[in-house]
């Protein structure tokens, strides 16, 4: 199974350096100098890491096969991928492709929607849920809100705070006549 290590962003400078949007929990290992990464689409790779650096919270890389800014600009949006070398994933870790399509339920079992994607954030990832009415809702992927992920039952349980989903019951307090 291929896993995304990073997505190539904008070119920086004239020598072919690019900004990377990191998607791995171990960038030092995956992006070590000398490592060769496959690409998606495949016609842009493989790419061999020549140098990496961090500047103002962003990671930048230079690849042996990319010698100038023009070549670097062509890589924008290319995914750097590896074959998974993990025998057993962590108990509370899931890959995005495993979550997309799962039914989203509230703690009582009522349908809230379907997972349509994952957005990677700075503080935490967000589950993108398509509600039955077609609206997209972004749910913080934290254990206090996403209380259970059950791949066998093809569902995710979300204990959402009031107002997060559009179809939640609204309590109206009426005054006395």
UniProtKB/TrEMBL annotation:
Keywords: Chaperone, Cytoplasm, Ribosome biogenesis, rRNA processing. Residues 5-85 form the RimM N-terminal domain. Its main location: cytoplasm. SUPFAM superfamilies: PRC-barrel domain (SSF50346), Translation proteins (SSF50447). GO terms for cellular component: cytoplasm; ribosome. It is found in: Cytoplasm. It holds the Pfam family RimM. One of its GO terms (biological process) is ribosomal small subunit biogenesis. The keyword Chaperone applies. The keyword Cytoplasm applies. InterPro entries: PRC_barrel-like_sf (IPR011033), PRC_RimM (IPR056792), RimM (IPR011961), RimM_N (IPR002676), RimM_N_sf (IPR036976), Transl_B-barrel_sf (IPR009000). Residues 97-164 form the Ribosome maturation factor RimM PRC barrel domain. One of its GO terms (molecular function) is ribosome binding. An accessory protein needed during the final step in the assembly of 30S ribosomal subunit, possibly for assembly of the head region. Essential for efficient processing of 16S rRNA. May be needed both before and after RbfA during the maturation of 16S rRNA. It has affinity for free ribosomal 30S subunits but not for 70S ribosomes. The PRC barrel domain binds ribosomal protein uS19. Binds ribosomal protein uS19. Belongs to the RimM family. This is Ribosome maturation factor RimM. It comes from Actinobaculum massiliense ACS-171-V-Col2. The gene is rimM.
């Amino acid at each position: 199974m291929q896993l995304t290590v990073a997505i190539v962003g904008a070119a920086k400078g004239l020598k072919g350096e690019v900004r990377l949007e990191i998607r791995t929990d171990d960038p030092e290992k995956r992006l070590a100098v000398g490592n060769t990464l496959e690409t998606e689409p495949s016609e842009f790779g493989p790419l061999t890491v020549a140098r990496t650096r961090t500047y103002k919270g962003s990671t930048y890389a230079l690849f042996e096969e990319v010698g100038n800014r023009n070549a670097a600009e062509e890589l924008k949006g290319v995914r750097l991928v590896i074959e998974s070398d993990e025998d057993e994933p962590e108990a509370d870790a899931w890959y995005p492709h495993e979550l997309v399509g799962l039914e989203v339920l509230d703690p009582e079992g009522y349908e809230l929607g379907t997972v349509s994607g994952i957005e990677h954030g700075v503080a935490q990832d967000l589950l993108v849920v398509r509600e039955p009415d077609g609206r997209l809702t972004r749910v913080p992927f934290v254990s206090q809100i996403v209380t259970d992920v059950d791949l066998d039952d093809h569902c995710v349980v979300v204990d959402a705070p009031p107002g997060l989903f559009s179809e939640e019951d609204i309590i109206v307090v009426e005054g006395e006549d």
